[in-house]
Amino acid sequence: MTLVSTSVLVLAVAFLVVAAVAAVASIATVGQFVVTNRRARLARHESIRSYYSGFAVTN
After folding, report:
1. What predicted TM-score, i.e. pTM, was given to this entire model?
2. How far is CA 26 from the centre of its chain?
3. How far apart are CA 39 and CA 22, in angstroms?
4. Non-local CB neighbours of 41 within 8 Å, separated by 6+ positions
5. H or E stretch covering 27
6. Which of 40, 41, 59 is nearest to 50 (CA)?
7. What tens digit of pLDDT does each residue of 5-59 get?
8. What integer pLDDT is reported at residue 55 of this predicted model?
9. Is residue 19 within 8 Å of residue 5, measured between CB atoms?
10. Where exactly are the transmembrane stretches of this chain (predicted)?
11. DSSP code of 47?
12. How far does Cα 15 stand from its chain's mean position?
């Protein structure tokens, strides 16, 4: 049986917490971007794929 030191366990848990917070923040940012651009996309009568493909190509 292999024992894991307490410091490694604490660092692993801290890493997972930071990764979860970063994931939630990035999902919220992308969601806000989509919601903000929805009105312009609907005014142009474009699908989600055609509207956001221009952003993907230019970046």
Report:
1. 0.62
2. 3
3. 27
4. 48, 51
5. helix 6-43
6. 41
7. 888 999 999 999 999 999 999 999 998 988 888 888 888 888 878 877 876 666 5
8. 67
9. no
10. 6-35
11. -
12. 17
